[in-house]
């Protein structure tokens, strides 16, 4: 993991309370897997860094793309940054999504701000000749993003809580109908969604990316632990360094 002052080269709103930021620096050249994140020091006013998943990578330009949602004072302050500003960034952090050699057809399931890291994953899957089907869930049309970008990579189904975009309902309404059309699934989103997906697809190989609050971001403070099955000798995993991506049966939701 590298610490670097990365330059903001693009910054814009993409949906309600959701922003896209492109950062330039050497960290972009060190991203190994989709699903990794960076840890951002927003300013001296905030003691803790903010973890943000990497949504896309352009190593030839030394650029990474981030999408983040305003969830508090820290991310609100991040929206006030300007193009040309520099951010104190640690990264890339965590263990990303593995792409097994025998994957032929993949299902991607994203919910809300859990969608961004799945975009870079989808691009990597398609580059390897793997068929990708995506199911995205949002609260409403005004909070949706990356839908058109995913459509360039394969079939896309969208659900919203209020029915303002796609189908009204939950992502599990659609994933249940897609059973049998994929050999591996990858998911990121709220814990309640991940639990529902893991239970519904318990006989399919799956990987989950966990969303947890982090302290240090390097595994020292144990602020982001998740539990593992009772027969596991350790009993927990740290999301920041053992994850954020885990095998679906590796963690207890």
What this model shows, in words?
With 253 residues, the chain is of the alpha/beta class. It is 15% helix and 36% strand. A hairpin with a 4-residue loop joins strand 4 and strand 5. It has 3 domains: 2-93, Elongation Factor Tu (Ef-tu), domain 3; 97-209, Rossmann fold (3-Layer(aba) Sandwich), CATH 3.40.50.80; 210-247, Ribbon (Dihydroorotate dehydrogenase B (pyrk subunit), domain 3). It has a 7-stranded mixed beta sheet, sandwiched between helices. It has helices at residues 73-79, 116-127, 147-151, 171-175, 191-200; strands at residues 2-15, 18-24, 37-41, 50-58, 63-69, 86-93, 105-111, 131-138, 155-160, 167-168, 184-188, 205-209, 225-227, 236-238, 245-247.
Number of helices in the DSSP assignment: 5
Proportion in helices:
10-25%
User: Regions with pLDDT < 50 over 5+ consecutive residues?
Assistant: none
* Amino-to-carboxy terminus distance: 28 Å
Total domains: 3
Beta-strand content: 35-45%
- C-alpha geometry: globular
- Alpha carbon gyration radius: 17 Å
* Average pLDDT reading: 94
Biggest sheet: strands side by side, in what order? 10-9-8-7-11-12-15
H/E topology pattern:
EEEEEHEEHEHEEHEHEEEE
Briefly note the structural class of the backbone: alpha/beta
How would a textbook summarize the main sheet? 7 strands, mixed
Examine the secondary-structure arrangement and name the CATH architecture of the largest domain: 3-Layer(aba) Sandwich
Total beta strand runs: 15
CATH topology of the largest domain: Rossmann fold
CATH class of the largest domain: Alpha Beta
Q: CATH-wise, what's the superfamily of the largest domain?
A: Nucleotide-binding domain of ferredoxin-NADP reductase (FNR) module
Subunit structure: Heterotetramer of 2 PyrK and 2 PyrD type B subunits.
Keywords: 2Fe-2S, Electron transport, FAD, Flavoprotein, Iron, Iron-sulfur, Metal-binding, Oxidoreductase, Pyrimidine biosynthesis, Transport
Binding site for [2Fe-2S] cluster: 216, 221, 224, 240
Cofactor: [2Fe-2S] cluster; FAD
């Amino acid at each position: 993991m590298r610490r670097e002052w990365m330059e903001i080269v693009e910054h814009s709103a993409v949906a309600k309370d959701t922003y896209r930021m492109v950062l330039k620096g050497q960290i972009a050249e060190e991203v190994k897997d989709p699903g990794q994140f960076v840890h951002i020091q927003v300013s001296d006013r905030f003691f803790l860094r903010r973890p943000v998943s990497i949504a896309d990578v352009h190593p030839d330009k030394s650029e990474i793309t981030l999408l983040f949602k305003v969830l508090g004072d820290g991310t609100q302050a991040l929206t006030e940054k300007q193009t040309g500003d520099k951010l104190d960034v640690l990264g890339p952090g965590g263990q990303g999504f593995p792409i097994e050699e025998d994957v032929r057809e993949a299902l991607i399931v994203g919910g809300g701000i859990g969608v961004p890291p799945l975009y870079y994953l989808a691009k990597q899957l398609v580059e390897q000749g793997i068929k990708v089907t995506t199911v995205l869930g949002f609260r409403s049309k005004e909070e949706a993003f990356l839908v058109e970008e995913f459509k360039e990579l394969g079939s896309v189904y969208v659900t919203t809580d209020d029915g303002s975009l796609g189908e009204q309902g939950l992502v599990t309404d659609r994933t249940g109908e897609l059973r049998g059309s994929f050999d591996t699934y990858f998911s990121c989103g709220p814990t309640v969604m991940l639990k529902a997906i893991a239970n519904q697809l318990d006989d399919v190989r799956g990987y989950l990316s966990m969303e947890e609050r982090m302290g240090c971001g390097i595994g020292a403070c144990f602020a982001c632990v998740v539990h593992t099955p009772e027969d596991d000798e350790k009993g927990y995993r740290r999301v920041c360094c053992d994850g954020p991506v885990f095998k679906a049966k590796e963690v207890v939701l």
